[in-house]
Amino acid sequence: MIYTFKQKVIDTLIVFLLVMSTGGLLFVFNRNNMYLLFCCVLIATIFFSGNPLKRRVFNSSITAFFTLIFLFWVNYYFGLTGQLVSKYLYYMAVIFVSALTFFHFSNNRDMSIFSERLYIILKIFTIHAFLQSLAYLFIGNNLQTIYHKEYECTTFNYLFYYASTDVKRFSEISLFGLNLMRNQGLFWEAGVAQLFFNIYFFLEAFILKRSRIMLILTILVIISTYSTIGIIILLMQMFYYAFFQNRSILALIFAIVTFFSISSLVIFNIQEKTTGEKEASFQKRYFDLIQPFFIALENPLTGVGLDLYKFQEYRSEFYINSSSSSIIEESIGLDLKMETTEQGSSNSFMYILAAMGFPTGLFIIYLFFKQSIMQEKKYIFLIVISLSLFSSPLLLRPFLVFLIFSGLVDLNLKYQSY
Asked: What's the confidence (pLDDT) of residue 294?
């Protein structure tokens, strides 16, 4: 079948919306309207595609869709009292667009086309981020602040976006002698942006293998995010690429030199966060690793619920037993200095256990690891995303739910084959 230009445009738009809905500024400032647009594009694309239904894929998708819907509403009814229905309706929208996106590419296209469209979108984002980082050297004093509810950032003519230094004290950094702003690309923060830049590096290095120049540019972009976990993921990918993928002497030498150059930056960043003036950032992530797990132990079956405000209220009054805290500190070798917080959790895995309980939470995590979207170099892909999820609350956003949904459909298809 001929893959027409019109189909390419539609698929690119769908993947663009899928990525943007997972931490993109477009959805931060226009969430309801963008989800409505996303739904309309998907429904129209499927309805007018003219492709016959693949019965097994359709039946498995329907089963997966209602299974997730059921699990989320069970969580609502058995979680903390007073949760807002509107919070769960948002998750219904997330499941809906994720399910339709999966069905579209499974029924009307194939997943190689999805990877191709994702590659193109992330390539554009990476080039934009590179230009955005360079532009700050010239436009840093000509930015305007924009707001939406609790979020604030600065922009240059709505083309380039930077964190507001009034909100994030350490957003401005000195890198290689240049004063730069941490690169957040088109996302709400640098920690989210690095995930998609690292996914692009993965696609470029291991799947499509089209441009070494883009690999070098992506390395620079990920470094400019100044995300500790993002740079660590990059180093892991570079190591694998140099020793197991490319194997040329020149690539090996470049990788070794770059590896040690970047490693010093990572070590300095870690020291600064664990014992320096940025210690509060590390302590918050350390606390988000520990406290939600103890909340899950107190609410093991159905968790406290997915209403973020109720979760924040609950955790602000939840204190870890001092003896348990001491055991953790002795085992890890780091003092836990936070006792409580009113903020949400940055750790996706621990949050979902606290919010949904162990049975559902572990099942969702299992489905994520069973994803069927990216089969080639699957474990590298999962490592890239998993490490990012330890410091980014993205597991229940559309791109990740899209992966989770694929795992559930794959599970249903295997069950049908028995």
From this structure: 93
Distance CA 139, CA 148 (A): 23
Q: In angstroms, what is the C-alpha Rg of the chain?
A: 22
| CA distances for 377 relative to 202, 238, 250, angstroms | 9, 14, 23
pLDDT of residue 342: 83
Mean pLDDT by 10 residues, the chain (418 residues): 90 98 96 96 94 92 97 95 94 98 96 96 98 92 88 93 73 69 93 97 93 92 92 91 78 76 75 66 85 94 94 90 77 76 90 97 97 95 96 95 97 80
pLDDT at 217: 96
Question: Which residues make beta-bridge pairs with 24?
Answer: 187
372, 232 in Cβ contact below 8 A?
no
Query: Can you tell me whether residue 305 is helix, strand or coil?
Result: coil
C-alpha span between 296 and 130 (Å, rounded) = 41
H or E element at residue 363: helix 348-369
- C-alpha 277/C-alpha 255 separation (Å) is 31
Element (H, E) at 145: strand 144-148
Identity of residue 148? H
Degrees to nearest 5, angle at CA 134 with 128 and 135: 80
Q: What are phi and psi of 366, to 5 degrees?
A: -60, -45
Using DSSP, state whether 235 is helix, strand or coil: helix
Residue type, 331: S
Strand partners, 154: 145, 162
User: DSSP character for 242?
Assistant: I
Structure tokens at 232: 């660590």
The string over 203-234, giving b where at least 16 C-beta atoms fall within 10 Å of a residue's C-beta and e elsewhere, is bbbbbeeeeeebbebbbbbbbbbbbbbbbbbb
Q: What pLDDT score does 293 carry?
A: 93
Distance CA 170, CA 249 (A): 39
Q: What are phi and psi of 156, to 5 degrees?
A: -115, 100
Classify 301 as helix, strand or coil.
coil
Structure tokens at 133: 């980082």
Provide the token pair at 406. Answer: 């694929």
